[in-house]
C-alpha cells in the first residue's frame, strides 16, 4: 500500500540479491501505484497497480500471472530475507521432496525480540528450528511450486485479511501435497501486534467460519466452528469488547457469502489426521 517505503526497498533488495536462482519480481500495489514509489523501485522490478485495495490474498493472486518460473515466492513488504541463499535452499528442498507443495520458513525479529508463538504454525510449538508438517502458514514469506499453487486454487480472494494461510495449506494438502514448516530457512519480520488493525477481531471470526464453509465436508463444519468458538471465548473471556467484535464477525461469517465452496476429500481429512491435525480444531 506504499506506506513502508524503506521496508519495501529492503525486502525487494533481499530478493534481488538471492544467489543461485533466477528471480522475476513484481511489486503489487494494493490501492497504490508502485511506479510512483519514493525511493523508486529497481528497474528490474515490474509493478502492478490495483486502483482499489482488494485485500492481501487477492493482491497476491493478482501478482502471480505477472511473473514466470516454476516456483512462486510471496513476501510481505515489511519482511525480508537475511540470507542470499534462502531461495536456492528453498528450491533445493522442493526439488528433493516433490511431495511438498508449500514451505514456510522460521520467522525471526531482526532486532532480537522473541518471536510470537503464532509464527510457528502447529499446536505443539516446540523448538522453532524444528521442521514439520503443518496445516496453516504464516503468510508473510511463503514458497510454493507453481503447480501446487495452481492446483490449490491460490489464496482466498474474499478473505481480505486473516486465515488465508490456513485455507491455502488445507488446499495444498487436498491437492495431494504436504505443507511444510522449514526451521532451517529464515525470514525476518518485526514483531507487530495483529490486533492493531481495527478489523482484526471481526475478520478473524468471519474468516474462521468462511474457512469451514468453503473447505470442509458439511458434517465437519459445525465441529470446526464450534471448537474455535469455545477456544476464543476462553481466550478472551476477560476482554468483552474483543469478544463482541469477534461475535460480530462470527455472525457475518454465517450471513455473508464466502465465495465458491470446494470441500476437501475425506481422503485428505484422513491424511491430515494421520499427520497430526484433523481439520476440526
UniProtKB/TrEMBL annotation:
Residues annotated as domain Glycosyltransferase 2-like: 7-112
Signal peptide: none
SUPFAM superfamilies: Nucleotide-diphospho-sugar transferases
Annotated keywords: Glycosyltransferase, Transferase
Transmembrane residue ranges: none
Highest rank taxon of the organism: Bacteria
InterPro entries: Glyco_trans_2-like, Nucleotide-diphossugar_trans
Annotated metabolic or biological route of this protein: Cell wall biogenesis; cell wall polysaccharide biosynthesis
Protein name (Swiss-Prot/TrEMBL): Glycosyltransferase
Species of origin: Agromyces tropicus
Amino acid at each position: 500500500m506504499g506506506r513502508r517505503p524503506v521496508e519495501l526497498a529492503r525486502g525487494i533488495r533481499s530478493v534481488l540479491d538471492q544467489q543461485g536462482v533466477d528471480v522475476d519480481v513484481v511489486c503489487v500495489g494494493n490501492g497504490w501505484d508502485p511506479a510512483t514509489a519514493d525511493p523508486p523501485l529497481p528497474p528490474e522490478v515490474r509493478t502492478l497497480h490495483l486502483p482499489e485495495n482488494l485485500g492481501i490474498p487477492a493482491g497476491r493472486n493478482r501478482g502471480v500471472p505477472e511473473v514466470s518460473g516454476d516456483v512462486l515466492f510471496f513476501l510481505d513488504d515489511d519482511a525480508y530475507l537475511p540470507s542470499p541463499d534462502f531461495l536456492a535452499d528453498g528450491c533445493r528442498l522442493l526439488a528433493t521432496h516433490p511431495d511438498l507443495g508449500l514451505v514456510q520458513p522460521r520467522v525471526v525479529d531482526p532486532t532480537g525480540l522473541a518471536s510470537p508463538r503464532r509464527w510457528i504454525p502447529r499446536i505443539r510449538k516446540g523448538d522453532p528450528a524444528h521442521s514439520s508438517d503443518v496445516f496453516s502458514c504464516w503468510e508473510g514469506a511463503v514458497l510454493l511450486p507453481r503447480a501446487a499453487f495452481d492446483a490449490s486454487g491460490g489464496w482466498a480472494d474474499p478473505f481480505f485479511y486473516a486465515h488465508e494461510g490456513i485455507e491455502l495449506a488445507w488446499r495444498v494438502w487436498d491437492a495431494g501435497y504436504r505443507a511444510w514448516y522449514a526451521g532451517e530457512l529464515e525470514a525476518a519480520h518485526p514483531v507487530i501486534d495483529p490486533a492493531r488493525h481495527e478489523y482484526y477481531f471481526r475478520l478473524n471470526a468471519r474468516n474462521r467460519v468462511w474457512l469451514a464453509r468453503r473447505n470442509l465436508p458439511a458434517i465437519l463444519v459445525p465441529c470446526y466452528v464450534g471448537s474455535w468458538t469455545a477456544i476464543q471465548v476462553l481466550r478472551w473471556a476477560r476482554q468483552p469488547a474483543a469478544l463482541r467484535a469477534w461475535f460480530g464477525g462470527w455472525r457475518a461469517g454465517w450471513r455473508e457469502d464466502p465465495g465458491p465452496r470446494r470441500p476437501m476429500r475425506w481422503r485428505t481429512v484422513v491424511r491430515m489426521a494421520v499427520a497430526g491435525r484433523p481439520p476440526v480444531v
